[in-house]
Amino acid sequence: MVQSNIFAYIELSKMVQELDRAKSPEDLKKKLRSQSAYFKIIEPRYFSESLEKEWILILAFTTYKDVQRDLKGRIICCSIRNSIDSLTVSECKMLTNRIFKVYNKIKEEFN
Q: So where are the chain's domains?
């Protein structure tokens, strides 16, 4: 089995640490929004085959909405932030749980 890239492990651990600091369900949504760049920089190819598929599903969930544009057509909100903004509290918890599961699995690969 091919092991995940150390880059994915390190960056995902930073993301998880910040998400773990959420004090309330509403705060969790803010944390997801502030950590949204990780969904762009942690590419699926950095994961082992089994985790790659799980990460692709997470990315699909975080980009189901299109970019948000103003009246002049300028982008004012990327698809990830727009998608996260539309999530309910329970969807934020579910997304976070999925991220934590991937993190725990990648952590096992390195232990």
A: 6-110
